[in-house]
Amino acid sequence: xxxxxxxxxxxxxxLVLTLLAVVQGCGGGGDGYTSYSTDSAWNKRAQFSNVGxxxxxxxxxxxxxxxxxxxxxxxxxxxxxxxxxxxxxSDPVLALAIPGLYxxxxxxxxxxxxxxxLLHVGNGYPTTIGYRPAWAESExxxxxxxxxxxxxxxxxxxxxxxxxxxxxxxxxxxxxxDCYGKKIAVIRSTDGLNWRVDAGDAWAAxxxxxxxxxxxAASADTIHLIAQSRWPGGPMRHLTSSDGRTWTVAESExxxxxxxxxxxSFSGGKLYALVNGAFYERSE
Length: 284
Known about the structure:
Elements: H1 3-25, E1 43-47, E2 58-61, E3 64-67, E4 71-72, E5 75-76, E6 79-85, E7 88-89, E8 93-96, E9 102-111, E10 114-122, E11 132-138, E12 144-149, E13 151-152, E14 164-169, E15 172-177, E16 185-189, E17 194-197, E18 212-218, E19 223-228, E20 236-241, E21 248-251, E22 263-267, E23 270-275, E24 278-283
Parallel strand pairs: 13-17
Antiparallel strand pairs: 1-24, 2-3, 3-6, 4-5, 6-7, 6-8, 9-10, 10-11, 11-12, 14-15, 15-16, 16-17, 18-19, 19-20, 20-21, 22-23, 23-24
């Protein structure tokens, strides 16, 4: 090979690698995206090969794990459920389909034997009406009843939000959304159908961030909130709070590589995160 040929081959290799990086960084569900940890605090326990999308809330209860993706293969816009344990879950089965509507993201919570979901629901992808917060309930977490769009500050809100999260904490429902004129808004409800937006911003400690993809989990005393600082390419950050109003930075950069945030759950003194199919844990 002549020096000129070697130069052309090198330029071609650089071009191919650049194109691959661009493709990997662009939107989509993130299928095929590899997550890894650079922080010894986060221990990778398993790879859920059949749950490869970003929007996949998890509920961990001891050794039991359920995952609720809003996409499964080519089927988009419905709620699915995969059940299993720390080592993996079953192939997801359909849990909720709303005729004529599209479920973009979901926050799932298990409370006193029942299951609850704060959904983002539009009329397709993309949507012409926004992705409006909506409510669903289930006796067993497998078959769901859709209750419709909810009121936020007295009205059905249109919110082009990228993700949401739901927890039960000290007698009320708390949701987290990158919406309502805030970086990460905290919303509260006693019945799941009527919500109010807190005055503060959970992400006030990082005014230069464009925070997206929030997820949350809670122990009896502490709320854990993780979101992407920006998309694409920003690190995740980890905040904690005892009331959802005053926040402390636990990790300014979470040591897990992610494309679109994490999906959190808390059980047995440990915080769990599902990141594009990779399942991590860390002690509180």
